[in-house]
Amino acid sequence: MKNIIQNIQNKITKIKEENNNYNNLISNSQTIQNLTPIPNLNNEIIDYKIQQITTICPDINKDKAIIINKLIPLEETYLTVEYTKEVVTNNEYYIIPTNKYIWILNSTHYTIYNYPKTPICNIVKNVLMGKIINLNNIILEVTGNDKSINDFINIINNKEYRNNIIKEKTNYLCGITPTFQLINKIGSGISIDKNNNIVFHTNNNNYKYKKEDITNYELLFDNSIVYSKQLNSTTRITSSHNECYTMNIRITTKNNSFIIPILEHSSLNIKHNKQDATFQNNLKFANNILAKLKELTEQQY
Predict the structure, then answer these.
(1) Which of 91, 93, 249, 286 has the lowest CB atom count within 10 Å?
(2) Secondary structure letter of residue 99 according to DSSP
(3) Exposure of 178 in the CB half-sphere (CA atoms within 13 A)
(4) Terminal CA-to-CA distance of the chain, rounded, Å?
(5) What is the Cα–Cα distance from 55 to 52, expressed in whole angstroms?
(6) Which helix (H) or strand (E) holds 207?
(7) Torsion angle of alpha carbons 151, 155, 160, 164, nearest 10°?
(8) For residue 231, what are the contacts with CB-CB under 8 A and spacing of at least 6?
(9) Which of 256, 249, 217, 212 is nearest to 233 (CA)?
(10) Is 289 in contact with 298 (CB distance < 8 Å)?
């Protein structure tokens, strides 16, 4: 009984200390400064990155994710994504550490920070749906579970940890820095760098090739070839190609051949037809990839 009472008293003391510390921090808290208005951006939306943002941080909806995706340059990779509120002002901010900078933004403004040389972020107290953190004397409420918040803090504070995450998150690029990218929600597509190195993403594997290594690319509906570079055909939906279970691009190189899944087989075993929005959206995506490959490789033929 004595131990139980002592444990309760210790918890009460800890809570009091935590609250006193919190109140002291709030009274001396700074706010996020030097915000720049977000310009009108016409950058392409990359479905893969939108999916990443909303999956990592469900509190950020698709519209907000699009703002993030358009603002942060293509060559930067998201390490994590956090939804926060500045405690003093109750203003919401999305914080996205990338392989280069820390981006802080909302729907209208943004600012960029360099990574610190010494730790600047720590947990102040627990709250119902997340934690209160101190980020360089700015007090923020962060939503999320313990793991996501601890990962965020380690990315900010710990260079070695951050570099490991950068390596993990950029593996799919096979060492290139993309200047062009088309990747769908399932992780299929292409990334291209300034030297025209191409990385093909098959949602499970990534293959890096030079443009001169590509000998053919084909659009397949199920097992039927709808378009083929080698056959010099044109992309055209005929009466025999107006529906399919799957849509794929087949890439052939000098030493390999592989499939890039575009539209996967439905779990309900339903055929997609050309009137479906899903069919049309995926066909447009596939044609955009084929057009880019043609632009890069046509001079070889």
Answers:
(1) 91
(2) S
(3) 24
(4) 86
(5) 5
(6) strand 206-210
(7) 70
(8) 225
(9) 217
(10) no
| Cα–Cα dist 263/188, whole Å | 10
Range with the poorest average pLDDT among 92-101, 109-118, 148-157, 290-299: 290-299
The dihedral sign for the CA sequence 187, 188, 193, 197:
positive
Token readout for 191 is 């990334």
Considering only CA atoms, which of 175, 223, 173 is closest in space to residue 201? 173
Burial (CB count <10 Å: 0-12, 13-18, 19+), residue 10: exposed
User: Which tokens go with 265?
Assistant: 């087989």
Average pLDDT over residues 93-111: 97
CB 49 within 8 A of CB 69: yes
d(C-alpha 76, C-alpha 97), whole Å:
10
Query: What's the length of the chain?
Result: 301
- Closest to 292 measured CA to CA, from 263, 265, 260: 260
Residue 77: which residues within 8 A CB-CB, separation 6 or more?
98, 99, 166, 169, 170, 173
Residues 144, 148, 151, 157: what is their CA dihedral angle, to the nearest 10 degrees? Answer: -10
Residue 9 CA to residue 73 CA, distance in Å, equals 52
Quickly count: other Cβ atoms within 10 Å of residue 104's Cβ. Answer: 23
For 12, list phi and psi in degrees, rounded to 5.
-65, -45
Amino acid of residue 149: I
Task: State both tokens at 44.
Answer: 């392409």
Whether pTM > 0.85 for this model: the answer is yes
pLDDT of residue 126: 87
